[in-house]
Amino acid sequence: KLDEIVAFAGVERYIDTPVKRYSSGMMVRLGFAVAAHLEPEILVVDEVLAVGDAEFQKKAVGKMQDVSKNEGRTILFVSHNMAAVKRLCNKAIILQEGQKIFTGETDEAVNFYLSENQLDLKTEKKWHISDAPGNKNIKVVAVKVYPNKGEVLNTQSDFLIEVIFYNKTLGINLDLTLELLNKENVVIFHKGIQLNNRKDSKTGYYKSIITIPGGILNANIYKLNLIFGENLTHLLFRINEIVNFQLHNYLQDSEYTRLYPGVIKPELIWDTKFLETFEAEL
Question: Parallel, antiparallel, or unpaired: how do β-strands 138-147 and 187-194 relate?
């Protein structure tokens, strides 16, 4: 099955290159390809979807589904990506410090896992410059998420993300990217903007306020990642889950806690009319 393995891993051009010179992504691709083609009774896959490009991840998912459904073999899929677990698994086991603490249907296990790992839902954080998160390039001193109107973050109203940071790098094209994930670690959006474009960044404090329009996101718990860079290509500093917040579904008091399916909850424009007559085109 050598040819099948090489083709699946996509390493035909590098088959004569010593594996020690492979990137970590190439090693995982090759390792998964070997394991998946050995026809084991139980295939153990640990975070294989955390690396590789979209094409390989799609192939890996397809292969696992084929091995499980068509060949009747067992796959033990290990991951912290709740969306992938829900997509691939029909049963789940939760381990804590090496001990099994839950086993059951996938949806029940995911809900149990999320309830056991409650996020710190503070919508505002501040630091002194001396102990602020950062590195030699950037120091983040404050992050705040707040509604544009009212007191509650909700699905219908705009809300704002305020970031105050100290830039230490002089004379570059500075950029800031927001990455928003839901509690299942699904990336909702990854959007960056150039803060200046003439290589005239200054050393000192910057304040950036980003407005997220209402009528887009669904009610959920969200995690905010911040990525600072140069020219939207070179990474200066990244921090994950710097703040977590909950967006409530807010239509009216009686429906305040009602949850709807889906990642997004857009406000759509409807135009419906009653037709007196209609002749179908065949």
Answer: unpaired
